[in-house]
Structures are given as structure tokens and as C-alpha cells.
Amino acid sequence: MQPVDVVVIGSGPNGLAAALRLASAGVSVRVLEASATPGGGMRSAQLTLEGFVHDVCSACHPMGVLSPYLRTLPLADHGLRWVFPEISVAHPLPGRPAALLGGSVDATAAGLGVDGAAYRSLLDPLVRDGEALFEGALAPLGLPRSPLVMARFGTVAWRSAVGLARRFRDDPARALVAGCAAHATQPLENPLTAAMALVFLVAAHRSPWPVVEGGTGQLARAMVRLLEARGGEVLCGQRVTDLRDLPPCRAVLFDTSPDQLASLGGPWLPERYTAALRRFRYGPGAFKLDWALDGPIPWADPSVGRAVTVHLGGTLESIAAHERAVFAGRHTEDPYVLLVQQSAIDPTRAPAGKHTGYAYIHVPHGSTRDATDLIEAQVERAAPGFRDLILARHVTTPADFHAYDANYVGGAVTGGVADAAQLFTRPVARLDPYSTPSPRLFIGSASTPPGGGVHGMCGYHAAGSILGRLGSLDARSPSAWGSP
């Protein structure tokens, strides 16, 4: 291979975002991807039957459409089409109407009964400052551009999700908070889990949670096309097993898990640093089902069919109990299910009259338990007759996720635990978390700030770290870099 300024290992959203920022700055960049197609968590495939397009990993993209970097890119010119729902989230509740998150703050508050005024009071100021809030929340640690906005956010965000939810008196508002907070994949009693709930609630009022027309893989394709238009390249089927096999380059960026950085970068990194990388905690895994369906999901509450995402788990208390158990390594019989019905708003996903379904639960790290019946039972409770519509299903276990992408250690698809003990030390405590003790090695995966999600901001910030140091480096073979 020809020499290049920067090699990026991995073509997930962060690897591609980093490559785009570098290429836009005039840096020659080559992305190496082990799989046959680019994208990492941004891939789609016909997992069940011909004509049914399923998202292999990420499916719904509130952070993608609001990403401070991705939204600046002309991805629409390269084939990206967002599809927006009427309602972002529906949360069915037994014996009463579903809680609905979507549209304006007033529209959501109107369905929350006695908690409507409290919901408006909490969300109105955050939504007004939404742009600054997302810039701050998706930035690395340091002085935010809008410190007053982030300070107001922080007065609530530092709390636990359980504490935030109990500001409300009735189950619908509490359930909305719990369902959004559970995306954090940690106990809802933990400090800072309120931040996850608030970010997702605000996102729904800034822009309905969209899917990508034709499948999430189209987002990856658009990013690759734009990168190529800016002079970068992506090579697939290029698994890196030894950095000394790379061409002469000035720096290498890892869009990988910390343990992959430790393994590949070991000859150029101090032992104390690689030991710290290996202590990184990945957290619970995921067990996922994809369905080819003979019709739309028959929700008992028809309003649920208007939402792209459905949170199935009942009350705050039951969701919190499930998340607490799996974080501690225990299974439950009453899981919290995250379901996405892409074909309800994107007819390209299935043949005429047919539909797709996507659902997953959090499970203990490395779990080998088959959760198919548990997930389908939860859907059936809220949508009687659902099982009769299943034409085919595809199962993805934690081991399958890890085999699919080496970043998903133990089935953990979010880049590692983001609790208070690790949120500020991702992946190792450093003033510049994207740098390493080697001036030539960098990491910009979901295991760095601001963490998991299809927003590209980890890679964007890592590219900034590289650009600040690249001028002092020459292009040479990694075998000539020297030891730490």
C-alpha cells in the first residue's frame, strides 16, 4: 500500500466521521475495515426473508440527526434520506393509554395528566436551549461553549433516573423517563442516569427520532461516498493483526475497543497504559430479534402504531428492576424491551403489505440464555396476536454480536459502561482521552467521550486531537516508530 498520513482502523460511525474531518482538512486518510462492507454498527441486511431489510445493529437515530457534526455534512447529496415518525416513543401501560413522546413539549404534556405542568416546567427550558445542550453533551470534558446552558442541565442531569422520575406523580411520566434512561445500560439508581433520560426526551422535541430510508446501511454508504469525494479511501476485508504490516503513515486512529488498542499497540505503549486499557468495563450485552411479519404489529392501543420506537417494560419500578439485575449479572423473567418498527414509516423495508420488527433486551455480559420467548411474550402482552404474524425470525446473541464486531465485547454494543466511575475516564484517565502515550496512536471509538450512539462525535473529536499533533510527525513504517 502507498504511504498515507493517517490510517483509521474500523469503519463504524466514529471511524468514518474521523476520516471525514481529516480528509476535509487536507490530510490523506485510509480506512481499513475487517468486514466485507463498511459501517460497523451501521449495516442493514436481509436477515430473515428475501425482500425484508433489517438493521443489523443501530436502527433509530435521534443522535444521528442532531449530531453537531453529522448534521453539517452534505450526506443527502450522497443518498441519505431520513424518515421521521409522527411519534418518537410509545410506552404501553397495562389498563391505560400508552404514554406518547413526540411533537412539542405541550403535545406530550397533554397526555401526561396530573404531570403535564411538571413536564413542561422541566423540558421547556432544555428544549429551547437544545442546540447548545447537544453541543455540550456530545463534547469531551472541558469548558463548554455554553457554560450556563450546561450548568442548568447539570443541576438535574447529575441525579439518578429514579430520582428524576419520582418528580412526577403518575406512571406515564415516570415510565417515559425510565424507558429513555434505560438506554444508558446501567442501574437507573446510578447518578447521572437522569442525563440520558433528559437527552432523549429533549431530542424527541427537537426532531422526531428518525430511521434511515432503506436501512441504516444507507447512512454508512453516504458517509463513505462523501469521504471518497473528499479524497479519502475505505478498504474492506482488511483485518489488521499487526501494525507493522501497515504502510508508512504519520498516525493511526483506532475505532476499536480498548483491548484491541492494547493488543495491537502494545509494542509502542507503556505496560501501565495497556494494563489500564484491559481494565475497561464493557457492561451488559444485548440479545436481539428481527422479525419478518405478515402485517403491522396489532397493538392493543392503536396509538402505539404511530411511534417508531416502543418501550415495553411497564412501570418505572419494573424497568429499574430489570436494568439493576442484568448489570449485576442476573437474568430476569420480565425484561425491558426496546422495539423499533421501521417499516411503519419506511415502506422500503418490506414487501407490500408486510412489515419488519426489531427488538432487543439488555442481558448479563456474555449471556448464553435464549431470550426469544421472553421478548415475544412482552410484545404479545401489548399486541395480542403478534406471534401469529411472525413469518420468520433472526436471533442475535451476545456471542453473535461479538463475532460480528470485535468492539462488542461480551455483546456490549454501547462502547462500555458509562457510569460515574468510567464516564470521565474513557478509556483511560487522560487530559486528552483520544491520545495515548505514543504520539502516533489515537483512539476515537465509542469507548471514548461522549460514548455510544450513531453520532460520530467520538471520531470527530479524536480527529481534532490528531490534527493538533500531526505537524510534528513524519510518515514512516510502524516498524521504525521506536518503542515507548
What does this 3D model show about the protein?
Helix 5 (130-137) crosses helix 6 (147-157). This protein has 2 domains: 4-48 and 55-80 and 213-281 and 415-480, FAD/NAD(P)-binding domain (3-Layer(bba) Sandwich); 82-210 and 283-404, Polyamine Oxidase, Chain A, domain 2 (Alpha-Beta Complex). The chain has helices spanning 13-24, 62-66, 105-110, 116-128, 130-137, 147-157, 161-165, 171-181, 193-206, 217-229, 258-265, 271-278, 316-327, 372-382, 398-404, 457-467; strands spanning 4-9, 29-33, 44-45, 54-55, 82-83, 87-93, 96-101, 211-212, 233-236, 249-254, 285-293, 307-312, 337-340, 355-363, 390-396, 441-443. The strands form 4 sheets. A 7-stranded mixed beta sheet has the order 7-6-12-13-14-11-15, with helices on both faces. A 5-stranded parallel beta sheet has the order 9-2-1-10-16, sandwiched between helices. The mean pLDDT is 96. It is an alpha/beta fold and 484 residues long. The protein contains 16 helices and 16 strands. The longest helix has 14 residues, at 193-206. The radius of gyration is 22 Å and the shape is globular.
Structural class category? alpha/beta
Main-sheet strand order equals: 7-6-12-13-14-11-15
Low-confidence stretches: none
- Number of E-state strands: 16
Count the DSSP helices: 16
The proportion of residues in beta strands is 15-25%
Features of this protein?
484 residues; alpha/beta; FAD/NAD(P)-binding domain; Polyamine Oxidase, Chain A, domain 2; 2 domains; seven-stranded mixed β-sheet; five-stranded parallel β-sheet; globular
